[in-house]
Amino acid sequence: MPESDLSAEDTKLVTLARAARARTGAVEGAAVRDGDGRTYNAASVALPSLSLTALQLAVASAVASGAGKLEAAAVVTEASSLDTLGHAAVRDVSPAAPIHLAAPDATVFATVTD
Question: Is a pLDDT exceeding 70 seen at residue 1?
């Protein structure tokens, strides 16, 4: 699915996720939009004492800021599928929010809605 098939707001999520990934050189980047339209982006973290997927961290940032609902999420990754921990974090907050998966070049290759 070309990035242009997404809404402008979801395209922004892909852009923010790409920027987070590029800025840190991380394995993946993610961004989420809460029910008020605020966005949160993050990169994956891999420390000896802490490992978080980019999507887990973006969701945690939103929830820590008071978000009670997520409208959508995006993950930029070289993986071919969504990680289960990030998926679970989004579903904990919003059971039906779409999660767009994009390659590093911003090509959206899947949208997870379950």
Answer: no
